[in-house]
Amino acid sequence: MKKVLVIVPFPMGEEDLARRQAQMKAVDLGPGIEFHYKAVRVGPKNYSSQHDMVLADISIVDAGLDAEKDGFDAVCIDTMSDSGMAMLRSVLTIPVIAPGRHAMLVAQMLGEKFSILMMWDRWKMLYTKTLGELGMEHKCASMRSIGVTPDNKSLLSGKEEEVFPLLLDAARKCVEEDGAQVLILGSTTMHEAHGWLSKQIGVPVINPGPLTYKLASIAVDLKLTHSKATWPTPLAPKHEMIRAIGAAGAAYLEGRP
């Protein structure tokens, strides 16, 4: 049985973690592979500033550092910021799949230009960074926000009547005014809207979380992983220091000395 670790980018309990696990319902992965969800020990309250991004990188590396040693065959990172991906690729030889860049690359397989639907404007920096790294700024027709502060634990639960019409309005503007031929949900926290939105709009809508699961499965099946020429192994690994930072941060959050 192949095993994939899904790193959830916020500390949370089982009930909130289950809402993330619900993304599995959107993809058929077949037998022979199982996915295990793990919330980080530490992390920012939200991904809304450069300060937050540093904490996000550290928290995700801490959560995934031992994935290969623990018998996992691949890692998926459950955030469109792709936080920790580059760092984990440098210390692991198993595939590390993050949704931001892969959603954009797959969008290019499906159409000429894509738009990104986001909950609030403060997420724009996440996509701008990845677009720049990929040299794909000219392929992004637009980024449209619905102006709703995201909840990384309850997700869209209880907000459907408010959020879904706003997403549809933004999606139509992306297609009709901006010229998008493909839409990308700007966060894995928006996965609950995917099925509904896909039926309302006449272009493909990429659900980034389930996409990473399928890509991880393909990478494992084809025995493909990232290039160490691009993400080289560190000359002086500081794994124990990373673990110590994670442990100290967790103790701080729990009010322990």
From TrEMBL:
Which InterPro entries is this protein grouped with? Asp/Glu/hydantoin_racemase (IPR015942), Asp/Glu_race (IPR001920), Hydantoin_racemase-like (IPR052186), Iso_Racemase_Enz_sf (IPR053714)
* GO-annotated molecular function: amino-acid racemase activity
| Stored Gene3D superfamilies | 3.40.50.12500
Annotated family: Belongs to the HyuE racemase family.
Protein name (database record): Asp/Glu racemase
Name of the gene this protein is made from:
hyuE
